[in-house]
DUF2790 domain-containing protein (Pseudomonas reidholzensis), 85 residues
Amino acid sequence: MKALMILALAGMSSLALANEVQPVSSQPHVMQYDYSTNLDIKRVISLSTLPNVCEVVPATMTYEDHQGQIHTLQYRAMGEGCGQG
């Protein structure tokens, strides 16, 4: 009887823990940058590669803030194809 009670309590506690676990999103929410965006960047994790064109293109930066949260920011940047000359 005691073993059955222990198993029941163990099962209930693991169900309660399973309900508290939030699924981890593989992609952070993407924010659109504008000049009024207040950035808190502790560490840049990645920058998108800019194409070899001479025009403004979308770019992405993923960074960590000072609270340890990961953010993805989309902004516009000049491509790498504007030669000197």
